[in-house]
Amino acid sequence: ANVDVRVRIPSDLPQIQGEEQRLQQVLGNLISNALDAMQSRDNPQLSIVVTPTNSHVEVVVSDNGCGVALEQLDTIFEPFQTSKKIGEGLGLGLSITANNMRDMNGQV
Q1: CA-to-CA distance for 59 and 50, rounded, in angstroms?
Q2: What is the pLDDT of residue 16?
Q3: Do residues 47 and 60 touch, judged by C-beta distance below 8 A?
Q4: 4-103 falls under which CATH superfamily?
Q5: Given Cys at both, which of 3, 17, 28, 30 links 61, Cβ 3.0 to 4.6 Å?
Q6: Residue 97: is it exposed, middle or buried by C-beta count within 10 angstroms (0-12/13-18/19+)?
Q7: Which ranges carry the Histidine kinase domain (predicted)?
Q8: What pLDDT was estimated at residue 92?
């Protein structure tokens, strides 16, 4: 199915301090997970909203996928945690994402 993608980035966005490659990897991982979570949806919707605040820039990646099970929330950023079938994912994406953000003084 085609994904309805909506991106909102303000024209007056301040310059972001961080490592470009790591930021690309973070966004790539979050978008990839969102696309995986929406595979069974008839009308998949992905939203990326960037909002500057006083001290940082907030990027929200959201989707209308299956969500995260409550029992997985405590361990979701640990290595090798996955809800995917064997062979479909290693469970490293969110761990790498969290580490990259922490190394750049950000958070997930």
Answers
A1: 4
A2: 85
A3: yes
A4: Histidine kinase-like ATPase, C-terminal domain (3.30.565.10)
A5: 30
A6: buried
A7: 1-108
A8: 79
